[in-house]
Structure formats: C-alpha cells, structure tokens
# Entry
Amino acid sequence: MTRNEVLYKVIEIVNEHKSADFPEATENSRLEEDLGMDSLDIVEIAMSIQRRFDVHFDDDEWDKIKFSSVSVKDMVNFTCKKLNIPVIDVQKKEEKPKQQIVVQNPEVEKLKSVDLSKLAGKTVQLNGYKIIVEKIAETQQIKR
# Structure
C-alpha cells in the first residue's frame, strides 16, 4: 500500500462523516475549521480509520487527535506511520518577496549614470560579481 492509497481512503472516510454543508475534504483540510466537525466526529473518523486499516493509534496520537487542530494530512500520516509507509511531507514553498540589496562599494558609482531599465534581463559584472538584473520599472534609475 502507498501513501496515496491511504490518502484516498482517509479522504473517503472523512467525507462519509462530514456534513453536506461543507466542501469535500482535501489533504490540507482541517477537520474542525474547514469541515465543521466536532470532537465526536473526529473520534469517529479515527476509529473508522483504525478499523479500515487494522491499526491502533497510541495514546500520544489520540491526544493529538482529540486536543489539537487535526487535518486530513495528520490522519494520513498517523496511519502511514502505523503501516510502516514512508511519509514524505512536500509542501509548496511560500514565495518570499525578493529583497533589495544595497551595496556600499565605490564600484557602484559606475552604475549611477546608467539607465537600469536597459539592463533588465542582462548580467552585469561588477567588482568580480555577476549581477543579474531581472526586472526594473522603466523609470527607476540610480540617482547621484
């Protein structure tokens, strides 16, 4: 059995227990917040998972299930752990805004008279460093 097979079965179990007023479960759905389940619903889901996969959650896992905000992914990971299926948690990295780097270097003086909009998409050599100019607003220039 693979993690994806466990995931599909857990989602099926969760969807059987959720109210029709809420959207279908996904891997990242939180049982309480996203699917409107209460603690009894969550315990019933955990018990259904134990029966379906013939596993037994230990006390620490039950505490997490009952007393924390549990997601479908958490339930899948608990189940995979019991089935000795490797759990690889791949999350989409959040894009962080690129930081502007200010360099205090006499070599930068060479760029002060250059229209930087013409350098967009080019690589500039400066003091032994390659500087890649990705995108600059058309009106932006380094001023003296």
Notes: The chain has two domains: 3-82, 95-144.
